[in-house]
Amino acid sequence: MKGRVQGVGFREFVRHEASSRGITGWVRNGDDGQCVELVAEGDDEALAALLEMLHTGPRFARVDAVESEYSEAGAGFSRFGMEM
Question: 25, 37, 65, 81: which has the fewest C-beta neighbours closer than 10 Å?
Fold first, then answer.
């Protein structure tokens, strides 16, 4: 996600939304200070719902762009967390 997505609780928003849908993976701030990156694994319906929520984000966020890419799940995550 790109836009005003750092410093507005976006990572916690993503963690909550993903965890509540049974999605595993991680979310972190991008190095450029203007984006948030995430890797998510879950069923198709849950991932589609999360992707839809990412276009809005939390209350004070401004999402300018969401880029997504699908690949085979690696089943390498036990929960959804935040990376630093």
Answer: 65
Active site residue 4: no
Quote the pTM value.
0.88
Q: CA-CA distance, 84 to 82, in Å (whole number)?
A: 7
pLDDT tens-digit series, residues 21-41: 999 999 999 888 889 999 999
- Select which of 29, 59, 62, 79 is catalytic: 29
Q: How far is Cα 84 from Cα 79, in angstroms, rounded to an integer?
A: 16
